[in-house]
Each structure stands twice: as structure tokens, then as C-alpha cells.
């Protein structure tokens, strides 16, 4: 296995090496150091003082500490520069491509989840979510799903189960609208691979609750 050796100065080489692990890595110059982004959106790490600092909170931060990673300290550069929730990756991690890739993906996943939760928290009514309207809001309220928080807790699959139990029109199209709403995306733009994976998850929960499984269709969401 090729060892990921991080160079001291060349940020372009840093990005190239990280691209070998996850792809679509770019850098942006901060007022000190560089931010490392995935797909130009999610800053998962920073390159400062010849070190890679990975962003981590909660369980991921505990995992990194367990691997010997130290949190960024302001005194490494200056007292005015504050960088919370970033941990310097150790040499042993940098030499383990599989572990390095896993940790980066966990960081990116965590960032995206936080962004999604933040976006949904700003939406008060179900009708204001992507793909939904007052018609869908009324249907969900009939089964005790009164707001966005409850819908998030229950999830699209279990919401469909509730609707089916109440004999309310719980179509596959409704499922994709709900799933898209909870992922803050247009339900028309799911790939075939995503549709297959999502439908498998829905069918598992439908079957566990005594309902017939949905057949795979290629119909456009109505």
C-alpha cells in the first residue's frame, strides 16, 4: 500500500494526495493556512503549520483522541486565531490509507448531517419543505406528524407505514417526496442507484410491519 506522505509546503500536492483517497478535494487560502474542501462545499480539514487537522465532533472526536490526535491549540500560531473541533492527524494515521479515508468520510458525513439539520430547523411547517405542500401536510397531520421535528424523528419510511395503517394514500411517489424533503433535495433528481437503495429500505420496513413490498418502478414522481 502506498504511504500517504504529506509534504511540508506544497498545498497542491496535499490536495493531490487526498484526491487519491476520496476525490474532488480542493483548497482555499485562509488568513492562515488552507481549508481543504470536498466538492468545493464541505471543509473537512485544514492544512496549517505542516499538519492536517481533521474536523470532528462527538463520537468522531472521541475516536480521534483515542488514536492520539491532538486538538488544535491557538498557541501554535497566535492567540487571535481560533479553530474549534479540529484534530491533528498522527503520522500513523497518515501512513494508513484505509483508516485515513474512513476518517475523512466520517468527517464529511458529519458535516453534511449538521448542514441538513440546520437547514431543516429553519423550516417551521411541513408544507414549506422541498417537494411538499399543504396537501401532504394535512395527510401527515392525520397520523400525528404535525411538524418538521416529528417527521425527522420518524423518518420517511415509518411515515409511510403510519399512512398505510390509517389507509391514507401512501404511494411510492409520496415516499420519494418525503425522503427528498428530509434530505433537502428535489425528489426528481435521485439516481437509479439511490432509488434502488431507498426502495430496499422502504420495503424492509413495510415487510416488517405486515405490508406488501413496493415493486421497482421507473415512474416519474407525481
Automatic annotation (TrEMBL):
Residues 125-197 form the TfoX C-terminal domain. Residues 18-110 form the TfoX N-terminal domain. It holds the Pfam family TfoX_C. It comes from the Bacteria. One of its GO terms (biological process) is establishment of competence for transformation. PANTHER family: PROTEIN SXY. This is DNA transformation protein. It comes from Haemophilus parainfluenzae.
